[in-house]
UniProtKB/TrEMBL annotation:
<dbReference type="InterPro" id="IPR057727">
    <property type="entry name" value="WCX_dom"/>
</dbReference>
<protein>
    <submittedName>
        <fullName>YafY family protein</fullName>
    </submittedName>
</protein>
<dbReference type="InterPro" id="IPR026881">
    <property type="entry name" value="WYL_dom"/>
</dbReference>
<dbReference type="InterPro" id="IPR013196">
    <property type="entry name" value="HTH_11"/>
</dbReference>
<dbReference type="Pfam" id="PF13280">
    <property type="entry name" value="WYL"/>
</dbReference>
<dbReference type="Pfam" id="PF25583">
    <property type="entry name" value="WCX"/>
</dbReference>
<dbReference type="InterPro" id="IPR051534">
    <property type="entry name" value="CBASS_pafABC_assoc_protein"/>
</dbReference>
<dbReference type="InterPro" id="IPR028349">
    <property type="entry name" value="PafC-like"/>
</dbReference>
<dbReference type="InterPro" id="IPR001034">
    <property type="entry name" value="DeoR_HTH"/>
</dbReference>
<dbReference type="Pfam" id="PF08279">
    <property type="entry name" value="HTH_11"/>
</dbReference>
<dbReference type="InterPro" id="IPR036388">
    <property type="entry name" value="WH-like_DNA-bd_sf"/>
</dbReference>
<dbReference type="InterPro" id="IPR036390">
    <property type="entry name" value="WH_DNA-bd_sf"/>
</dbReference>
<keyword id="KW-0804">Transcription</keyword>
<feature type="domain" description="HTH deoR-type">
    <location>
        <begin position="3"/>
        <end position="58"/>
    </location>
</feature>
<keyword id="KW-0805">Transcription regulation</keyword>
Length: 317
């Protein structure tokens, strides 16, 4: 990236946040701190009202705006792909806002780029996973939860418990949204349980944002919370199985949900290695393959599966 392009990119970066540190700019553009100071000074000398506070960072004076940005074809194409994914993983309100933003982006493209984007739009299709339900795919209440997090408002919800039809009323203080397992989850402090909880959004029956403001000073950020949860996870167990080739085809993409690490094609079977924190859940999964599968290691896991099979036999005798 030449210096002119870098100066423009730094200015865009400065306008994207309230405050940006010199270290953050240096890391993003892979330049030294000395180069950052020179570039910021060059922008200031060109008339850009950049305010620098020692030990805090840089900010652009309120009210200053960069003239309309010209997107490259590659940047606009990337946003189009993101929009296609947004169609199946966000709620109607977020989808609408994204579409409006995409129209504005298209308006500043060159005619040749517009034609390419239109062609791309017609020929890119994202098909929802067969494991998703329509409710999961719509990701209801994303907009409301985003508003609640920004304004620090307590959210009242009616939540359906897993594997149960019981609906409970909860008042929660949302700290973040997380997408995993083909579904959106809201991480929040539950006032009923007096602890942090993971609420799967497809189980939310009703939701509205109240006028009650909560103090978020004691709440961790979503990244801090997830880091702590990861640290509390059980020790990962390595499990190696061998499965007949005629049976292996039925595993398909399921293996990625159970900690798949690697596979080795052998003469008569396939050797699969997994890392999992939940051996019990893993055992219940592989039981569906009955005699088409053999556990290679560890020995204690093999004994666990054997015990489960014996319980199953005694139950049905």
């Amino acid at each position: 990236m030449n210096r002119i392009d870098r100066l423009s990119a730094i200015l865009i970066h400065l306008q994207s946040k309230r405050r940006v540190t010199a270290q953050e700019i240096a890391e993003r553009f892979e330049i030294s701190l000395r180069s950052v100071y020179r570039d910021v000074k060059a922008l200031q000398e060109s008339g850009v009202p950049i305010i620098g506070e020692s030990g805090i960072g840089y900010s652009v004076m309120e009210g200053y705006r960069l003239p309309p940005v010209m997107f490259t074809n590659e940047e606009a194409s990337s946003l189009l792909l993101a929009g296609k994914l947004a169609e199946i993983s966000t709620d109607p309100a977020v989808k609408k806002h994204f579409e409006n933003a995409l129209f504005k982006i298209k308006s500043v493209l060159r005619y040749t780029d517009k034609e390419q984007i239109e062609t791309l739009e017609e020929n890119v299709i994202v098909i929802p996973s067969s494991y998703n339900t329509s409710k999961d795919a719509n990701a209801q209440y994303l907009s409301e939860l985003q508003r609640a997090m920004v304004t620090k408002r307590v959210v009242h919800m009616e939540y359906c418990k897993a594997y149960d039809t019981t609906v409970e009323a909860r008042d929660v203080e949302p700290i973040g949204l997380c997408y995993y397992g083909n579904a959106w989850h809201c991480i929040a402090w539950c006032r009923l349980r007096k602890d942090y909880r993971d609420f799967k959004m497809s189980r939310i029956v009703k939701l509205y944002v109240t006028d009650t403001v909560f103090d978020n000073s004691s709440h961790p950020s979503i990244s801090e919370y997830l880091s702590k949860m990861t640290a509390r996870e059980k020790q990962l167990s390595e499990i190696i199985i061998r499965i007949r080739k005629d049976v292996a085809r039925y595993i398909g993409g399921q293996k990625y949900y159970y900690g798949f690490v690697s596979e080795e094609i052998c003469e008569d079977d396939v050797r699969l290695t997994f890392l999992t924190s939940y051996p019990d859940m893993f055992a219940r999964w592989i039981l569906m393959f009955t005699d088409g599968l053999t556990i290679e290691s560890p020995a204690d896991f093999k004994a666990q599966v054997k015990e489960m099979c014996e319980k199953l036999y005694r139950h049905h005798v």
